[in-house]
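Exercise: predict the fold of this chain.
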Amino acid sequence: MTTKAENYAEIRFDTLRHDFGRFSKKNPIVRCSFSFTNTGTAPLIIHQAFATCGCTVPSWPRKPIRPGGRGAIEVTYNGTDKFPGHFQKTVTIRSNAATEVVRLTIEGTME
């Protein structure tokens, strides 16, 4: 009996954390990018990306990423009207990958 290999997508991020370090409350909006590769054998579809707070806004590719293809999740943190100090926020990514949920973390200190 032979079995057919199953195709699947897999998302592999270059890094799961980004530290903005210290930045001024005079320039409270900071951005970063989390690059990833579809290391699977089927197209990768990102269904959803959401953050723990309205001050953190992710954007993601809406089109499928082919096997071996690369993409990025762009994350914007808006510290306007926030208290200065250290923060840590999580962005949750949901996709059709074998690992369905991945969490990305941003942090920094607004002075």
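Check your answer against the key: The chain has a mean pLDDT of 95.
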